[in-house]
């Protein structure tokens, strides 16, 4: 029995569609959840600020060293520090709490006094 090319194409498409439906019924919700998590992860990565340059790190360390030298008479404002603790970001003008990790503070961060 001879099948026309159009019929072979339609049969092939029907088989592909049937396989896609079977895979969706078998693993659909899990695959969709994984795709959503992957998209969220990629979005966070793409929208994250770039890491600080070596020059910014040196300036930040110099500022920290200047404020750690002790309170002086000309000291006007404390240098803010950014700390990561259990997935939360904490900004403080003192030392980071125990168990937290200090992060780089952006140069253009402005602080409003209380």
From TrEMBL:
Residues 40-114 are annotated as: Disordered. This is DUF4124 domain-containing protein.
């Amino acid at each position: 029995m001879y099948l026309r090319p159009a019929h072979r194409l339609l049969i092939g498409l029907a088989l592909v569609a049937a396989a896609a439906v079977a895979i969706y019924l078998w693993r659909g919700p899990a695959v969709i959840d994984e795709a959503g998590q992957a998209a969220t992860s990629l979005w966070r990565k793409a929208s994250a600020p770039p890491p600080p340059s070596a020059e910014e790190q040196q300036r930040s360390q110099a500022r920290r060293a200047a404020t750690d030298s002790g309170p002086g008479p000309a000291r006007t404002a404390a240098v803010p520090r950014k700390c990561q603790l259990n997935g939360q970001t904490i900004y403080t003008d003192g030392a980071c709490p125990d168990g937290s990790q200090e992060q780089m503070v952006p140069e253009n961060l402005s602080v409003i006094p209380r």
